[in-house]
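Running this now, will post back.
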Amino acid sequence: RQKKVKIALVGKYVELKDAYISTCEALEHAGIELGLRPELVWINAEELSVSNSRELLSSVHGLILPSGFGSRGLAGMLEACRYARLHKLPFFGIGFGMQAAGLEFARNVLGLSDANSTEFDPTTSNPLIDIDKEDTSMRLGSQGIDLSPGSLFEKLYGESFIKERHRHRYDFSSSYQKVFEEKGLRFSGLSRDGLWVEAMEMSEHPFYLACQYHPEFKSRPTRVHPLFRGFMQATRQYKENR
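Update: finished.
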């Protein structure tokens, strides 16, 4: 008999659930393998705020923040990251979900109140997220990633070099690595040229992982993606410990 775990999916397009079908299926794949049934709680990022996050999120066992384009819903996505960070709620950010996690940490932990993406504020003095001036086209397809030795990412994958599928234009700059890691947010994976952050994890948190790429595209019923397996395991542990 499958054990049910409640997972909040905070997104911009929750009224069009098919927009996240690959993510939902990847959760199902991991759940089947682990004997868990993910019960999704759909939350519109535009409706999530500091005033209602406890009400909306206190009953869930994990939070997934999938990708999206544009600034709509950004405040709610940042609040999702803040809540999961402070309440030790298993968190998995994908694509812009990773960028939101970085922005939330920069603003609320590092005190960089104007930290932003140049997509939203071209004049920010802390452009955490920027576009490659040499190549402004969308970064598509399989890309190589170097994982940090001893990181949770390396442990979950079982290897230090991976290839994952990408679909984005703006990247998270690795130039902030030192200040982030001093405060506990580790840049666990970098692009092969070392310029862009591909994966990050929080040291003092049971499971706070985020990646720039799209692991959901490689998940199969008979070949569960290791990040979704790890996330589902963390939700089960969180539920058991409550």
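The first strand starts at residue 3 and ends at 11. More later if anyone needs it.
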